[in-house]
Write a structure and sequence with these properties.
Distance between the termini: 45 Å
Largest sheet: none
Order of helices and strands: HH
Structural class: mainly alpha
Length: 38
């Protein structure tokens, strides 16, 4: 039976999650639509 991967593992572990978070904040800093949220 194949082992099920967690979402964390599917995202690439710490490296993948850090890249995702970095990209999210880059978009939040550059998007006029996100200005009121930040």
């Amino acid at each position: 039976m194949p082992e099920t991967q967690s979402l964390y593992e599917l995202l690439g572990g710490e490296t993948g999650v850090r890249a995702l978070v970095d990209r999210f904040y880059d978009l939040m800093d550059s998007s006029p639509e996100a200005r009121d949220i930040r």
